[in-house]
Amino acid sequence: MKRFTQDTLDVDAIVQELLNGEGAVLISGLFTPEQIADARAIIMEHSEQAADKVTHFQGAAEAEGTISLQRRVWNLLAKGEVFSEMAAHPVLMQILRKFLGSEFIMGSIAANRLLPGGPGQEPHVDYPYWDFHSPETHPIGLNGTFPMNAQVSIILDPFTEESGATAYVPGSQKELRYPQESDKFFERCKRMLGEPGDTVLFYGVTWHCAMPNRSNHDRNAVLINYLPKFVKPLEDMPAALPQAFLDQASADMRQLLGFNYPYPEVLDAAQAGNAEGRV
Ligand SMILES: O=C(O)CCC(=O)C(=O)O
Ligand SMILES: [Fe+2]
Q: Which residue's CA is minimally distant from atom 1 of ligand 1?
């Protein structure tokens, strides 16, 4: 993965790398050790109980009985201010405005905790393409030449080969397709290796998956999904957040929650007059 810092940030180069290069980049130095420790402690506390939340791409682990060693924490915005700071980090906002359009939104912010012995996932593509194993349910000719998704993984524990650092196939984003056995994912994959505080930004059409955690420590990450303004988000975040959070949300957070884009709307009840057009 190409690596950037705030000082070497090159938005055009990152966008190029996501679309036409490896499909993933690493940005270091966006978050302080205090923010990372705070986020990790909250996630560990909220995932003490064995898995009792919905998860995805874990059919094999469910069958084997190891699914409780991968734990999700959903609706992170409600669980600590640090997650709002992460989701709306100015550097991420700057890159994503270019990549997904200036009015892009957030589809989900959740944690993935892999306990020691925790299972890997099925290789996949991310929302909103994640049911692309049934391509006929999507428009004919849909392809990945323009992005309808961006993924951010904020690394909270060492991401090593041993601890289950996310695997991905560089360049696989160039062809929008759900990976199959014959694609030999596990022979071709590289790993998203990183240190606590590193941020991986990738195009979710890139084939990827969490890998088994064979280390003796937990492997935590904050996973954020971003979408263009017109894609239906995965999580209904406004419905899951307290009114006080919504009332105090910054302009960027209001955009991320979808408040700048009014549709679907009951147009029969909308204010009369011309609502759209160049003039
Ligand atoms: O936690 C990881 O390494 C990746 C998780 C992921 O790709 C997913 O849940 O969609
Ligand atoms: Fe994924």
A: 210
Alpha helices in 47-144 (DSSP H): 59-64, 81-87, 90-100
Pairing mode of beta strands 2-5, 24-28: parallel
- Residues lining ligand 1, CB < 6 A? 56, 112, 121, 126, 166, 208-210, 221, 223
Closest ligand 1 atom, residue 209 Cα: 7
The CA-atom distances, in angstroms, between 236 and each of 84, 107, 232, 244 are: 16, 8, 9, 17
* Helix H or strand E encompassing 25: strand 24-28
Nearest CA to ligand 1 atom 9: 56
Per-residue pLDDT tens digits for 104-120: 999 999 999 999 999 99
Overall pTM > 0.85? yes
| CATH class entry, domain 2-261 | mainly beta
Atom index in ligand 1 nearest the CA of residue 112 equals: 1
Here the tokens at position 263 are 């549709």
Q: In testing the pocket of ligand 1, which one of 155, 223, 235 has its CB within 8 Å of the most ligand atoms?
A: 223
Q: How far is CA 61 from CA 106, 121, 209, in A?
A: 28, 8, 13
Q: What's the pLDDT tens digit per position in 202-234?
A: 999 999 999 999 999 999 999 999 999 999 999
Ligand nearest to the CA of 234: 1
**What is the 3 state secondary structure string of 104-126?**
CEEEEEEEEEECCCCCCCCCECC
CA torsion 55-223-43-256 (nearest 10°) is -110
Distance from residue 46's CA to the centre of ligand 1 (Å): 18
